[in-house]
Every structure is written in C-alpha cells, then in structure tokens.
C-alpha cells in the first residue's frame, strides 16, 4: 500500500503516488483467474451487470484520478431507454439479441495504462428465430468472442447446435474463428447455435452468443414470389406454395381474359368500324 497522499508527487513505496497499488492490481488479476461471469437469458428479460464494487472502492481511494468505462465487444456502450448506467453497474431492460457479447469494465490509470477489472459475457435467446433463411444460401455466425482473447490466453472455441458439438476449434486465436460461415446451408443447420469459449486450465467458460437459426428447404419460383421484396406484398399473403400456384394461375387467367376482352372490344368498335368506313367510300 502507499504511505503518502495519493495526490502527492514522487514514489509511494514501489509505485508512483496517485496510481493503483501493485497488490490491488494483482488482486484484480487473481479475481479474473478465479471466476467467469456468463449469462444466457431470454429476449425481453432484464439483467444487471454488476461491477466489482469492492475493487472500485480500493482503486478510488488509492488513485482518485483513475476512472472506469464499460464496453461491449470493444465499443463504448451507448446508453438509451433500455440500456442505462446506474451507479457502477449496467442495467439492461427488455434484452434483445443485439445486446449479446462480451462486456468489459476497464480501469484507466493516471499513467495512461489500462487494466481489465471485470469481464461478463451475455447471450440472448430470441423469442422467435434470429435468422429465417433457406437451404443453399449462406449465413455467417458471429461469436462476439474476440475481446476475451485480449484478456486471457490459451482459449478454445466450440460451436454447438442444440447443445451438441458442431465444431471444436480447440485452443486457437479467437479473432481468426470469431466468424463462422455456413455455406451452403442445409435444413440440418436449423436449431439453437451457441458460441462457447473455454479456458480449460482455469476451468472457466463463457457463452458469447446464442442464435436461433431456421433453415427451410431450397428456394424455388414460388418461394421467390413469397419472399422477394417486390412481390412479397402480394404473394407474401399466401402461406403455402400451393396457394401461390393457385394465385399465379388465377392471375394468369385474369390477365389473359383482360387482354382477350380488350382485343375483342378493339376489333368490334375500332377495327370493324374502320373497315365499314372504307367499304362506304368504295360505294361512293
């Protein structure tokens, strides 16, 4: 601990006055090694991400100029109606899938050095499917795990589908496997996908994302009519391909009848009348 005022200049034992004590920094590192904070909640639920108040109290006493910031996936959190700061904690109301990722409480020391105080991962189970797509198309699963690789070493990443292992990357660089491309998709890819990060030596694990994926059969002419932006306002009202087929037939017949009717009217009132006029001219 320091033996002089934190506002004094010079050296307080083994570290500059006004900085965070060395034993406090070591306690922070030990806390990170002891426990992982990971939450998986349902969409619409509320959650409080609590900061390490005990360590913050010590830091504020030792280093009045030090401060902390919360980030989500490496970006400062934008507060709003749902996500707010209350004291040292982050309050999330009516959680949404876009709230998923790794939250980090970062201490900014007076010497411009930064220290990770607490790491929390959050995954949100969507009420409906996050992605509703079709076979033969492509989908990129984002794991939001990169930040953990800057805090811990020797991390492994596993992708699971319905709690069964889909791919185990083993110990790897998270930045290299953070995005997983499913190309092409097939119907067996439907289910609840999770990104699970582990530090096996410390017996720590985090779930960094949860995605509900619905892969329907390969697209065809009728599904394109139902889902294309241009035609969806009309054909999207029909729930089955058979209904779309019936609608296409009815529309085709209606167009044919309309064209035929216009042609009949043209022949009757325009073309025949013109022929009659030409015939009258001959007799004259």
Give a structural overview:
This protein is an alpha+beta fold and 284 residues long. It has 3 domains: 14-126, Sandwich (Immunoglobulin-like), CATH 2.60.40; 128-218, Immunoglobulins (Immunoglobulin-like, Sandwich); 221-278. Helices cover 30% and strands 34% of the residues. It contains 7 helices and 17 strands. It has helices at residues 22-34, 53-62, 148-151, 174-177, 221-227, 232-235, 241-283; strands at 11-12, 15-16, 37-42, 47-49, 67-72, 75-76, 83-86, 89-92, 101-108, 114-125, 131-134, 139-142, 156-161, 164-171, 179-182, 191-199, 204-216. The strands form 5 sheets. It has a 5-stranded mixed β-sheet with strand order 3-10-9-5-6. Strand 5 (67-72) and strand 6 (75-76) form a beta hairpin. The N and C termini lie far apart (124 Å). This is Ig-like domain-containing protein. The chain crosses the membrane at residues 243-267. Keywords: Membrane, Transmembrane, Transmembrane helix.
How many β-strand stretches?
17
Low-confidence stretches: none
- The CATH architecture category of the largest domain equals Sandwich
- According to CATH, the homologous superfamily of the largest domain is Immunoglobulins
**Shape call:** elongated
The strand order across the widest sheet is 3-10-9-5-6
Number of domains: 3
Helix/strand-derived category reads alpha+beta
In CATH terms, what is the fold-level topology of the largest domain?
Answer: Immunoglobulin-like
Largest sheet: 5 strands, mixed
Q: What oligomeric state do the depicted chains represent?
A: single chain
Broad CATH class of the largest domain: Mainly Beta
What is the average per-residue confidence, as pLDDT, rounded to a whole number?
89
Order of helices and strands: EEHEEHEEEEEEEEHEEHEEEHHH
Helix content: 25-40%
Share of β-strand residues: 25-35%
Report Rg.
32 Å
Question: What is the number of helices?
Answer: 7
């Amino acid at each position: 601990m320091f033996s002089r005022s934190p506002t004094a200049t010079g050296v307080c034992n083994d570290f500059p006055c006004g900085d965070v004590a060395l034993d406090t920094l070591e306690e922070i590192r030990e806390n990170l090694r002891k426990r992982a904070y990971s939450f998986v909640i349902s969409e619409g639920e509320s959650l409080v991400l609590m900061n390490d108040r005990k360590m913050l109290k010590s830091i504020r006493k030792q280093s009045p100029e030090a401060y902390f910031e919360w980030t989500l996936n490496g970006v400062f959190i934008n507060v709003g109606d749902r996500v707010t700061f209350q004291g040292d904690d982050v309050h999330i109301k009516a959680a949404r899938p876009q709230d998923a990722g790794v939250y980090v409480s970062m201490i900014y020391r007076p010497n411009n050095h930064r220290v990770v105080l607490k790491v929390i991962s959050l995954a949100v189970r969507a009420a409906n499917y996050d992605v509703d797509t079709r076979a033969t198309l492509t989908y990129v699963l984002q794991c939001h795990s990169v930040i953990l690789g800057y805090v811990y070493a020797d991390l492994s990443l596993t992708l699971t589908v319905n709690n069964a292992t889909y791919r185990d990357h083993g110990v790897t660089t998270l930045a290299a496997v953070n995005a997983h491309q499913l190309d092409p998709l097939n119907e067996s890819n439907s289910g609840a996908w999770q990104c699970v990060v582990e530090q096996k030596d410390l017996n720590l694990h985090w779930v960094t994302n949860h995605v509900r994926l619905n892969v329907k059969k390969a697209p065809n002419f009728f599904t394109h009519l139902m889902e294309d932006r241009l035609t969806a306002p009309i054909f999207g009202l029909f729930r089955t391909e058979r209904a779309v087929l019936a609608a296409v037939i009815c529309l085709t017949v209606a167009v044919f009848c309309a064209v035929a009717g216009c042609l009949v009217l043209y022949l009757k009132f325009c073309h025949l009348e013109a022929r009659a006029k030409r015939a009258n001219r001959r007799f004259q």
